[in-house]
Amino acid sequence: MKKFTAFFxxxxxxxxxxxxxxxxxxxxxxxxxxxxxxxxENLLIKGNKVYYSLDSNEKKAKxxxxxSDADLQNVEKVLADNQFRKIxxxxxxxxxxxxxxVTIKKGDNAGSKSDASLIMAVDQKKWENIVEVFxxxxxxxxxxxx
Length: 146
Hints:
- The chain is 38% helix and 27% strand.
- By secondary structure, the chain is an alpha+beta fold.
- It has a six-stranded antiparallel sheet with strand order 4-3-2-1-5-6, with helices on one face.
- Helix 2 packs antiparallel against helix 3.
- The protein is globular, with a radius of gyration of 18 Å.
């Protein structure tokens, strides 16, 4: 019985360690957090594999799915066309609003940007284009499949 218990604990530990990998190993990350009624939305992409989670007062969701190579190329194109790395963040403090953070860990567009303190007006349209590409992935793969 002791061997079974030890085996069970080891398996549980390994599984719990593996679930955290989804949150640390990614190529692209889109997250939306905060607000008056706090919400946490995450989209993590590693290769063609995607992990999505949502936790808010109204909804809770978790989903795994795959993206096509064309979808990934589109993400890279939008990041490059809108000069992701050159987008300037404003440094004013803003509280009690949902903010979006985009983190890229691969390629020429590697970097992290957030609108938690807003985006400079000159770069606002570029930021909106980048946020839109990730939001479309969510809409097409999560929100349309009930």
